[in-house]
Design goal:
This protein has 309 residues and is mainly β. It contains five helices and 20 strands. The strands form five sheets. The chain has a seven-stranded antiparallel beta sheet with strand order 10-14-13-12-15-16-17, with helices on one face. The chain has a five-stranded antiparallel beta sheet with strand order 3-2-1-4-8, with no helix packed on it. It has a four-stranded antiparallel beta sheet with strand order 18-11-19-20, with no helix packed on it.
Length: 309
């Protein structure tokens, strides 16, 4: 996964009320087009180093200002201007989009999990089920274009821990983002993934299907939704025999009628209207029911064929 690339500035604009920074748009080849902020000494057509969202930067004097952000790149705003990446002056004389991740020692941010979430691993995440990691809209302009011709739904992106559950002849299986987990350790300790799976009747997931959901609640990512207990929010049903995501109607039937797990809140439904980067950014400015700022949205077509965040 590219987290640091060679970029090229294609526009620089003033920011109202800002006298030390400007708004910049940078293209990064196959890694898409992003918006950020730069100092006053940058020029259009200049090659720059671009660090993308969820990059963890190694300590370096060139980007020492990132220390106060724990070296992590994430969506920010400066004087109201969205900053989706970090743009650093200077780049090797290489084609736009060239991957610099390994050369610069950049790694990917992974959400820290409390001990109650970790569990004991049986093995790796199953290879026959895709992991839940949607691309950013900036990297998939062809999917954004499909919003103009296909029905889609935007769901609230919950800030929790990704979980996958499925049934086979051996019974119910539960996995975190990277590992399949035992329900209990030898000492009898459980974990929140299995707690969520048992809270809902996931033994009724049809064989051949995997349900993917977010585990949210106390002790998980600071519990921004303010929940009183561990809960789940389902978002994908995957048929691992045909290797296809199933549509919204099938997801609703399994979750509502069989399992009883809430589906991730659907905040917008659409289709037939073109969207731009600015309208998508505005759509993603959302709050949880308790008033706290949400993590964003995920957009999926209703047939389950494509998705992005």
């Amino acid at each position: 996964m590219k987290l640091a690339v060679v970029g090229k500035l294609i526009s620089i604009e003033d920011i109202a009320g800002a006298d030390r920074i400007k708004k910049a748009t940078v293209v990064c080849g196959s890694s898409g087009k992003w918006t950020g902020v730069v100092g006053l000494d940058h020029q259009v057509d200049e090659l720059v180093t671009v660090f993308l969202q969820d990059a963890i930067l190694p300590p370096d004097p060139r980007w020492a200002f990132m220390e106060k952000h724990q070296w992590r790149v994430r969506m920010s705003r400066f004087k109201g201007c969205p900053s989706e990446c970090v743009i650093i002056q200077g780049a090797p004389d290489l084609p736009v989009g060239t991957d610099l991740t390994e050369a610069l020692g950049v790694t990917k941010h992974h959400k820290p999990l409390p001990a109650s979430m970790s569990g004991e691993a049986i093995g790796s995440f199953p290879s026959f089920i895709p992991k839940t990691d949607e691309p950013n809209f900036q990297t998939v302009p062809e999917l954004v274009e499909r919003m103009a011709t296909e029905p889609w739904v935007a769901t609230l992106k919950c800030d929790g821990a990704s979980c996958t559950a499925w049934n086979d002849d051996d019974g119910l299986h539960v996995a975190s983002r990277n590992l399949e987990l035992r329900e209990f350790t030898k000492t009898g300790a459980g974990n929140s993934y299995w707690r969520a799976a048992r809270k809902y009747d996931m033994s009724k997931i049809p064989k051949g299907c995997a349900l993917q959901f977010e585990v949210v609640g106390p002790g998980i990512q600071g519990n921004p939704m303010g929940l009183a207990d561990i809960e789940g929010r389902a978002f994908t049903l995957y048929d691992y025999k045909t290797h296809e995501r199933m549509g919204a109607g099938q997801l609703d039937h399994i979750c509502v009628n069989l399992i009883g797990i809430p589906i991730a809140d659907r905040v917008v439904m659409g289709g037939g209207v073109a969207h731009t980067a600015n309208t998508l950014r505005k759509m993603a400015e959302i709050k949880y029911p308790n008033g706290k700022h949400g993590e964003g949205i995920v957009i999926r077509d209703v047939e389950g064929r494509w998705s992005f965040k």
